[in-house]
Amino acid sequence: MPIVRVEMFEGRTDAEKQAMVRAVTAAMASSLKIDQEDVDIIIQEIKRKDWATGGVTWDQQS
Q1: Which of 1, 2, 40, 57 is catalytic?
Q2: What is the domain extent for residue 20?
Q3: What number of other Cβ atoms are within 10 A of residue 6's Cβ?
Q4: Does residue 36 lie within any of the structural domains?
């Protein structure tokens, strides 16, 4: 059973997350030739102040 971990900024709607989950599940099942029921997805939402790129947190980037 594959486990997909998705880390992304918080703020997306439940509908947007559900659409992503459906699309990723379908892609994993299709490419690995497994049942969709065997795919687990864990979403971790990160605050922009807790994610940095190039030494600058995303809440400070323009």
Answers
A1: 2
A2: 3-50
A3: 13
A4: yes
